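U., I forgot to send this yesterday:
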Amino acid sequence: MARTAVKDRGVTVADRIRQATQDLTPAEQKVSRILFSSAMLAGLETVASLADRAGVSGPTVIRLTTKLGFDSYPDFQKALRDELEERSNSPLSLYARTSRSRPADLLAKSRDVFTEGMRQSFDRISPAEIEGVIGALCDLKRNIHFAGGRFTQLVAQIMFLHLYQMRPGVRMIQPGLQARDDQLLELGPKSVLMIFDLRRYQADSVSLARAAKERGATILLVTDPWESPIAEFADHILIAEVTSPSPYDSMVPAFALAEALIAEVINRLGSGAVKRMRDLEGLREGFEWTGDGGTGRRKTKNKQGGGKHG
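Result:
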C-alpha cells in the first residue's frame, strides 16, 4: 500500500510529479518526461522497459516512484491503472456504481460537493501556472482563440464572450460554416489557443490542439485531474475537479475557474478594457427593442436632441 496519506487520495500521479519536480535528479526528470509524453501509459510497462525508454537505469525508476510516495513499483502501477480507469468513465459507468438513494437534503449535499470541488481545484493550481495563463490572455500582441468539446464548449464560450468585451483579437472556434481545423488558418507563433477538454476526451479536440501547437501557438488547457492527452504538449495546464452529485461530471469548478480568470484579466487590462466596453455599449445604442402591445419598436437616436424615439 502506498504510504501517501489518506487525505491525498485525490492527488494524481501527475500532481505528485509536479509537486516533487524541484527534488528530482536529471535522470528522474527524464523518466517523468516519458510518463507525461505517453499520458502516463509508459508507467504500465516494466521497470526495465520504462528505464530503457528514458535512457536511465532501473534503480532510477524505482527511486522516482519512491519519491512520489509509493512503497513499490506495483503500487505505482496500481495507482496509474486506477487513474486510467477513471479517465474513461462515462455517465453510464458512473451511474452503475452510484447509489440511487435520495439524499436527505439535496441542497446541502450539492452545496458540499460543489464547494469541495472548487476548493480542490483552486488549491491544486500553482501560482506559476495561473500566472502563465493570465499573462497570455492579457498580452495584447497575441490573438486568443477559444475551443471546447460537447459540454465544455459552454465554458469556452463564456470566456470568449467576456474577453471579447475587454480586448481585441479574440475568436471562438466552433462548428459552423467552416470545419474547426479550417479555423486554425490564422493561428501562428503569436497566437494562443485556450481549450477545455474534460473526460471523456474528444479526439477532434486533441487533434485541433496538436495542429495549433504545430503552427506555433501557445496552448492553454483546462482539463480534469486525469488530464486530457493535450496535456502532453500544452504550455500551461489548469485542473478542474469534476465530482458531482450525479453520474454526470460537474462543470461548476471549471465555470468558477473561468470566472476567476475573467476577474483578473479585466483588473489587469484596466482602462483599456473599460474603453473597449464603453465603445461596445455605444454600438448597442439604438438597437434595443421594447414591447408595445405585443409588437416591438427599435429605438433610434434623435439626431437633433440626441435623445431616442420609436
